[in-house]
Amino acid sequence: MKNFNYSIPTKIFFGKDQINALPDQIKKYGTKVLLAYGGGSIKKIGLYNKVIKLLKDNDISFFELSGIEPNPRITSVRKGIDICRENNIDLVLAVGGGSTIDCAKVIAAGISYEGDAWDIVLDPSKIKSVIPIASILTLSATGSEMDTGAVITNIETNEKLGTGNPEMAPKFSILDPTYTFSVPKNQTAAGTADIMSHIFEVYFNNTEGAYIQNRMAESILKTCINYGRIAMDEPENYEARSNLMWASSLAINGLLTYGKETNWSVHPMEHELSAYYDITHGVGLAILTPAWMEYVLDDNTVDKFVEYAINVWDLDRSKEKYDLAKEAINKTREFFISLDIPTTLREVGINEEKLEEMANQSVRIRKTIGNFKPLNAEDVLNIYKAAL
Amino acid sequence: MKNFNYSIPTKIFFGKDQINALPDQIKKYGTKVLLAYGGGSIKKIGLYNKVIKLLKDNDISFFELSGIEPNPRITSVRKGIDICRENNIDLVLAVGGGSTIDCAKVIAAGISYEGDAWDIVLDPSKIKSVIPIASILTLSATGSEMDTGAVITNIETNEKLGTGNPEMAPKFSILDPTYTFSVPKNQTAAGTADIMSHIFEVYFNNTEGAYIQNRMAESILKTCINYGRIAMDEPENYEARSNLMWASSLAINGLLTYGKETNWSVHPMEHELSAYYDITHGVGLAILTPAWMEYVLDDNTVDKFVEYAINVWDLDRSKEKYDLAKEAINKTREFFISLDIPTTLREVGINEEKLEEMANQSVRIRKTIGNFKPLNAEDVLNIYKAAL
């Protein structure tokens, strides 16, 4: 196990009607809020009106930034920063899924930065101060509600990049599973794949002796496997929605990473797909994951797949190592199929045309991606082709 | 899953040589420290000198409270409070195991309380303010390094009682597994049993739909089972010591409890044993746990034991329910035996004499203890007798 410094300061108000904690929590930080959200879904479920009423009843003034995109764009970040500067905002409140929260984070970090906000995406070390951020979550997926990162897209340059800062952890997040009852089947599936991918990125890892982290990772993977389909078939199943929601936060808030040396693989590969084709992030991850697993399976990595096979998929431990590994990878693919997620890039409109360009882009910052088995541009291209 | 408000603010500096973080962290809160510790063990391993040097080199003044007992006594708390009041202490730094940290917590909470410190043990609602607390952990067991509770003994009244307050969570804790290398076999065993008991107290529970919490609980139980004996046989095995140390914190920091309605059973029964006979807490827990499990096993609880049998002990799921449950309980008992822990009360010098008095004492505050299967005085007496 590696040394680590643990700090997860975000307060979570979890459960039905926890929205009532909102005014008191906001007032710890001020009375002027930027209300950031995406499209009409929060209006459709009545959440927008509820938030507005709570703010008005408690003399909290607010300014709105709406229309934040599913892969949130730097143009939205810039708009948000302008509103905050003009109105001396105390706290950015994101109401929505991970995209909205990510956008809110970079707005909060960009207010005090003098140059263009894209700079602090390209180079997180330029972030000097961050105003308080809070979230009301409506989609179980990215874990942005309890972590310190954000991913922003620049359409002009075809770039989708992650940034982060410890101060970007929300001060508090309200997680009411009933706000996810209206999430459609395909987004529920993509969100579940996203949560699982966050776990895979740190579970398939070479750090020795991180036993407790590995067992916890398996416990959250099992949660996703147990409830993913249920939440699609019974969208108002509180048990399924609540387990997935808490899984989304725990998968990426640091708990599974502390003590490991991690370096993600599938996310950076997928970010290129989303940047070039604007596809749903979780779908891209689900398509790439089994192809990536098959590609990295070798004598150095097979034991980790055996662990996965036995502890997550309950496969028969007496079988031969490679058989177990391959069976576990098939189980993974079959699980994503059971969630009705497309299994090939072609199904989401991606053909051979830009694969090489995207593969080169994926490694442009570091020469390789991932540390479970480091991948260069050629490896990434092979995985893209295998997923075609 | 129940609603919950999650807040785990303690920062953890985990790993070898993390002690170097001490001066900067203390200075966030002031420059006058009460250094609280137990016997000579921190001197024997050189930790005392290291702490003293770091404090002196960084112009942090300190006053000492030594001799804190294994079941920390209210008399030590009173002494600590006096020193803090006389010297206007900014932070209480506990260096030791759970007993030392518990004592430090009640000192920090008692400074501003005008009456006798035993009052705030009897009635935690009397705690109004708590000065900052920090810890350097030397024993993996109680989890006090990352939680909000403390257990204090009053020898005059034969009482051992828990108290707590959100502000009693340490501001930071330094967890260096090498400080536990010198922990003797019997204390390593008792600590492991204590960690497992904290998990059992919340795992054997009737809250519906807390799937993710149950799987995480199993993952930490597996960690204890995997490393308990190894740490005894190879005291300087860093992997074993680090996994047990992190397990001790995660077992009780709230992670496994949030979303559940919990009410402990075995701890309140054991507290009477420790209060009357001053036995090692973890040994008392290990003796009582299998007897308690057998006593509460019935048609309402058997499914939970089946879950435990399959997910923790990998038992054959095709077997009959009660067979699985009983086999899992036997596995639990055998595990404690494999750690060389006594299995009966007689072995630790407890006979029939005071069983009834202790049973009555255990339920004097609430009429019953536990909510998995509520126990009255007669039930407790039966469990004591079964463990005799």
TrEMBL record, chains A, B:
The keyword Oxidoreductase is annotated on this UniProt entry: yes
Domain of life: Bacteria
Record-linked PANTHER family: ALCOHOL DEHYDROGENASE YQHD
Transmembrane segments: none
Name of this chain's protein: Iron-containing alcohol dehydrogenase
Alcohol dehydrogenase iron-type/glycerol dehydrogenase GldA domain sequence ranges: 9-177
Record-linked SUPFAM superfamilies: Dehydroquinate synthase-like
GO CC field: cytosol
UniProt-listed InterPro entries: ADH_Fe/GldA, ADH_Fe_C, ADH_Fe_CS, BDH-like
Organism: Clostridium tertium
Key words of the record: Oxidoreductase
Pfam families listed in its UniProt record: ADH_Fe_C, Fe-ADH
Residue intervals of the Fe-containing alcohol dehydrogenase-like C-terminal domain: 188-388
One of the record's GO molecular function terms: alcohol dehydrogenase (NADP+) activity
